[in-house]
Each structure stands twice: as structure tokens, then as C-alpha cells.
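Example S7 (C-alpha cells).
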């Protein structure tokens, strides 16, 4: 993906596969790119996908929660925030609890 895609973005939805640790491990790189080019008030929504494959889980919910918390708190000076949810595209289990975060992806001044 081109880095220009992030330029001026108010929010980012980062998705990783809970059954493949390597997808979680690359989140730092994607987040760094987004933060380098997006709004300083970036809203991050972190989505762990394939929740329906719990028996194949490699990334624990607590790990995703910690990533979201640490990356939200580290942006406190610029008022960035982050949230986490887990979903299953196959079973249409969505992140309804985060719908407000997704619908309000605009910078806070």
C-alpha cells in the first residue's frame, strides 16, 4: 500500500488475523506509517479478525487490548486514541461496539 494513502487521514482501521501471529507482529510498521502521515489526532480502531476460529488462535485478546491501550496512551499528548474489537467476516460478527468510533473518525482540535 502506498504511504500517500494515509496523508491527512483522521483514522485508521488496522486489521490482523488472530490465527496468524505474523499479521499482529506487523502492526507496529503499519501504525508508524499511519502516524507519520495522518492527522496528529489519529483515531485507531484495531480489529482482530477470524474470531470464529478460536481453536486456532495465536494472538490472545489481551495482547490486542494491550497494543490498543499502549498505542492510545502513547498518543495522549496529541489526543490520539485507539480501540480494539474482534470480528468474524465469515460469520458476519462485527464490531458494533466500536461503530461510534468508526463513525466519528474526524480530528479533534
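Recovered sequence:
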Amino acid at each position: 500500500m502506498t504511504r500517500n494513502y494515509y496523508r491527512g487521514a483522521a483514522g485508521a482501521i488496522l486489521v490482523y488475523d488472530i490465527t496468524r501471529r505474523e499479521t499482529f507482529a506487523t502492526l507496529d510498521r503499519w501504525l508508524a506509517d499511519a502516524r507519520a502521515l495522518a492527522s496528529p489526532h489519529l483515531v485507531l480502531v484495531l480489529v482482530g479478525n477470524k474470531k470464529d476460529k478460536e481453536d486456532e488462535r495465536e494472538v490472545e485478546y489481551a495482547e490486542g487490548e494491550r497494543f490498543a491501550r499502549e498505542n492510545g496512551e502513547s498518543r495522549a499528548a496529541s489526543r490520539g486514541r485507539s480501540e480494539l474489537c474482534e470480528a468474524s467476516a465469515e460469520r458476519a460478527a462485527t464490531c458494533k461496539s466500536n461503530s461510534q468510533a468508526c463513525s466519528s473518525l474526524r480530528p479533534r482540535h
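Notes on this example. The chain has one domain: 3-93.
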